[in-house]
Design a protein that fits this description.
Blueprint: H1 4-12, H2 26-29, H3 49-74, H4 79-88, H5 94-101, E1 108-110, E2 128-135, E3 138-145, H6 156-172, E4 176-182, H7 201-212, E5 217-226, H8 231-234, E6 238-242, E7 247-249, H9 253-260, H10 266-270, H11 272-279, E8 284-286, H12 289-301, H13 326-329, H14 340-344, E9 354-356, E10 364-371, E11 374-381, H15 387-402, E12 407-411, H16 423-445, E13 450-454, E14 457-458, H17 462-465, E15 475-478, E16 483-484, H18 503-519, H19 522-527, H20 540-552
Parallel strand pairs: 3-4, 4-5, 5-6, 5-7, 6-8, 11-12, 12-13, 13-15, 14-16
Antiparallel strand pairs: 1-2, 2-3, 9-10, 10-11
The structure holds coenzyme A (COA).
Coenzyme A binds near residues 186 and 224.
Length: about 575
């Protein structure tokens, strides 16, 4: 039988498949004067110079690659597709649409590099933009197809991106806006899109669950909405269709002709007038795109939210140390890692940090700080996650859980050599294993929001205890220098099996290490949505601050008491 505490914990969870939670941040509460925390010393000393410079050079290369990819995704499906979209189809580009929908351009884009360099080719932005932006002061998730990428059709990676955005909406209780402009499934890959649990149908399942969780959902049909896509607007609370460019049908005119011989226009089969006047699949008719996005803004204004603290911005101190120096602290390799407190002193308000158990288990650093005015509990890797460090981590995570304080993990782990040469060494490893398992349990069961930032390596079992993706952090970001893989490619050659002798074996082994390196890059990870995006070290503080404000918004909604999904009548 589970211990009583666990039962109580489970009973407190709301009825939500993602175990989302309600919590209170002091910053959001706001206005009590906190005691100032001690200031961290973050000077980069002459002894750090060599490592600092090596990291800086690597960060510069990574930054270059980051900017290159960013430019690539901004070009969407390329020049011809853009001309087809804007001139022939007379539609706005997806980023122009977002400009009209959102209050400002200060939105958090999720996984912009998703879909690059996949086995089935490049799918810029996975064919749809997703993120979190403010509409009339309320943070909302948006999912917007980019029809310049193969008609906005859904590749497997597009489905994954949409599902992740819905998961974020559920976990953080954020309203969702769908901007649909899609030819449905990308047919050549249908087997990877239709049948399984996390395939296309899951989008509609999620819409129903989100509705039952009282998460508002609004759709704009601003292009084709074919086959499975037709359910997206039909399952939202309210849907808007744009005249002349918006269509909804399960099968388009060519299929009707093939099946019945009848010639019918897209407009007559499933255009704006038909769906707003006859079928009732949408609720609002918009004569043009700007009117549709303005209507969404009006609808969001009807959501019952109390004023959020962001409407009365609070003041906070900047770090005392230059955030541009984070580039030299972003480790190129595990062996080039400097003290985690040098990073913290450049991330947190006023470089102030209230450390917990400063002299115990020093290979992780734990303590409290504010980031852009939001109180967080920080767990930062500072070496191998030893027995003592794991116990300290578990203790601190439970403290934050009891006090309803969100957790931030700064992860930099490496794979450990499992070779054991003595009984005492085996005992040390076994004790460490038990303590790491306890920390995993503490992290998994903490019901406060969690943010994970991979600042270096993400390897081996330690990465789970440091709240890796499978431990469901609310958000997970990577620095461009991050390396993600079961084992650390840098330490791999040392553990080469003894049998590798012939030149063929040698070649195979070298190929394996090369592949491991390629597959461990931050960009490889982000292309597959193993994270929510690559962020530059100097932008980190603002991204984390924004995430904490986004997470805190749920405290200001006024949800109705009953719980049933919205059914379109
Ligand atoms: N699967 C794979 N590729 C598709 C596709 C699909 N379902 N729908 C469109 N495409 C591709 C086209 O082949 C074209 O590729 P290209 O640029 O390499 O030539 C590109 O997407 C754009 O399509 P195109 O028809 O030229 O653009 P459009 O703006 O005139 O029309 C659509 C876009 C989506 C409205 C139209 O292509 C369409 O109706 N597609 C079929 C939708 C459908 O039947 N889906 C059923 C899915 S179950």
């Amino acid at each position: 039988m589970a211990p009583l505490g666990l039962h109580r914990h489970l009973l407190q969870l709301p009825l939500c498949p993602l175990q989302c939670c309600r919590f209170i941040t002091r910053a959001a509460e706001g206005r009590r004067a906190p005691a100032p925390f001690p200031i961290l010393r973050g000077d980069i000393l002459p002894i750090h110079k060599h490592v600092y410079e090596a990291n800086s050079r690597n960060s510069e290369t990574c930054r270059h690659r980051y900017l290159e990819l960013l430019q690539k995704v901004k070009e969407g499906g390329g020049e011809n597709a853009i001309l087809r979209h804007t001139q022939r189809n007379k539609k706005l580009l997806v980023r122009e649409r977002l400009k009209m929908l959102l209050d400002d351009e200060n939105f958090l884009e999720l996984s912009p590099f998703a879909g690059l360099g996949l086995p089935y080719g490049d799918v810029p932005s996975a064919g749809c933009l997703s993120g979190i932006g403010k509409i009339c002061g309320i943070w909302c998730v948006f999912i917007a197809n980019d029809a310049t990428v193969k008609g906005g059709t859904a590749y497997p990676i597009s489905v994954k991106k949409q599902l992740r955005a819905q998961e974020i909406a559920m976990q953080n209780r954020l309203p969702a806006v769908y901007m649909v402009d899609s030819g449905g499934a990308f047919l050549p890959l249908q087997a990877q899109l239709f049948p399984d649990k996390e395939h296309g149908g899951r989008t509609f399942y999620n819409e129903a669950i989100m509705s039952a969780m009282k998460i508002p959902q609004v759709a704009v049909v601003c292009g084709s909405c074919t086959a499975g896509g037709a359910y997206i607007p039909t399952m939202t609370d309210e849907a808007i269709i744009v005249d002349k460019i918006g269509t909804i049908f399960l099968a388009g005119p060519p299929l009707v002709k093939a099946a019945t011989g009848e010639e019918v226009s897209a407009e007559d089969l499933g255009g704006a007038k038909l769906h707003s006047r006859v079928s009732g699949c949408v609720d609002h008719f918009a004569a043009a795109e700007p009117e549709a996005y303005n209507r969404v803004r009006c609808i969001v204004s009807t959501l019952n939210f109390d004023p959020t603290p962001e409407e009365h911005p609070q003041e906070y101190e900047d770090p005392l140390y230059d955030t541009s120096e984070l580039a030299g602290l972003a480790p190129r390799a595990y062996s080039l890692t400097l003290d985690a407190k040098l990073i913290l002193s450049r991330l947190v308000d006023g470089s102030r940090f209230l450390e917990f158990k400063a002299d115990f288990g020093t290979t992780i650093v734990t303590g409290f700080a504010y980031i852009e005015g939001n109180l967080v509990g920080i767990v930062a890797s500072n070496g191998v996650l030893t027995h003592d460090a794991s116990l300290k981590g578990s203790h601190f995570v439970q403290i934050c859980n009891h006090r309803n304080i969100p957790l931030l993990f700064l992860q930099n782990t490496t794979s450990q050599d499992p070779t054991v040469t003595s009984v005492s060494q085996a005992e040390v490893l076994t004790n460490r294993l038990k303590a790491q398992a306890s920390m995993m349990a503490a992290v998994a069961c903490a019901s406060v929001p969690k943010l994970t930032l991979i600042i270096g390596g993400c390897h081996g079992g330690e990465s789970f205890a440091m709240c890796g993706r499978s431990f469901q952090p609310n958000f997970l970001f990577l620095w461009p220098n991050a390396r993600i893989g079961l084992v650390d490619a840098d330490s791999f050659p040392r553990s080469r099996p003894e049998g590798v002798e012939s030149s063929e074996d040698e070649e195979e082994f070298t190929d394996l290490v090369t592949r491991l390196k390629e597959e461990s890059s931050a960009f490889y990870s982000s292309a597959r949505i193993w994270d929510d995006g690559v962020i530059l070290p100097e932008d980190t503080r603002h991204v984390l601050g924004k995430c904490l404000r986004i997470i805190g918004q749920q405290k200001y909604e006024r949800p109705a008491v009953h719980s049933s999904p919205m059914l379109r009548m």
